[in-house]
Amino acid sequence: MDTEVSYYPFAVPGPDGNQARIGGAAVGSYPRSPTSTGSIHITGPRSKDTPRLVPGYLATDHDRAVLVAGYARIRAVMAADPFATVAKDVAPLPDPSDADSIVRLSLDHGSVLNHQAGTCALGPGGAVEDDLRVRNTNRLRVADASVMPTLTTGNTAAPSMAIGWVAGGLILG
Questions:
Q1: Residue of 27, 1, 2 lying closest to 83 (CA atoms)
Q2: Active site residue: 41, 62, 109, 115, which one?
Q3: What is the C-alpha to C-alpha distance for residues 28 and 87, in angstroms, rounded to an integer?
Q4: pLDDT score of 20
C-alpha cells in the first residue's frame, strides 16, 4: 500500500473539534507519493502582496483511493484485539465503504503530513536550471525542497541538505 500510517501517543481533537478528556492516542494515514499538485500565484507587484495558495489536496483518483484504503485498514486494525478493547472514536466517523465521506472528512478536518516540494521545479520544464539558477535571472538561485520535481517518499530534510551542499559548491565554484 502506498500509504504511511502514523500513531500519535497523545490525544488530538476529533472531527468535531473536541479533545479526549483523559489521555488518548490517535492513528492516521496519508498517501506517501501523492500525485495531486497545487500551485502558488502572485497577486501583485509588491513583496507585501500575499500569494494565493491553491493546495490541490486529494485532487487525483490515486490519492483519494490511497487515502480511503488507508482509512479502511486503520479501522480494521483498531476493531481487532487488543485495540478493540481500548479504542474509542471521539466523534462519529464514516463507514470504511463510504469513500466520498472519508475524502470529505479528510478535506474538512485532516492535516497535511507531506512536506511540500516542487514549487520551483528543477529541470527542462521547471523554473530552475540544472545549476539551481532561476531561469532568466543572473544571480538568483534556489536551494531547498522547492527544486525537487517530485516529492520524496521520506522526509525532505536530508535531500534538502544535499541540495544546499550542491548549491554551496556551485556558488563557491
A1: 27
A2: 115
A3: 14
A4: 59
Low-confidence ranges of the chain (pLDDT < 70): 1, 12-23
9-31 pLDDT, tens digit per residue, is 877 666 666 665 556 778 888 88
Q: Beta strand 39-41 with 26-31: parallel, antiparallel or unpaired?
A: unpaired
A 10 A CB-CB count for 84 gives: 11
Three-state DSSP state, 164: helix
The Cα 141–Cα 44 span in angstroms is 22
Q: How far is residue 122's CA from residue 133's CA, in Å, rounded to a whole number?
A: 9
From start to end of 32-100, where are the E strands? 39-41, 52-54
What is the amino acid identity at position 90? V
pTM: 0.77
Q: Which amino acid is at 8?
A: Y
pLDDT tens column, 154-173: 788 999 999 999 999 999 98
CB-CB contact of 142 with 130 (8 Å): no
How far apart CA 71 and CA 25 sit, in angstroms, is 16
> Taking a C-beta distance cutoff of 8 angstroms, is the pair 105, 57 a contact?
no
State yes or no: is 115 an active-site residue. yes
Residue 166: strand, helix, or coil: helix
Burial class (CB in 10 A: 0-12, 13-18, 19+), 136: exposed
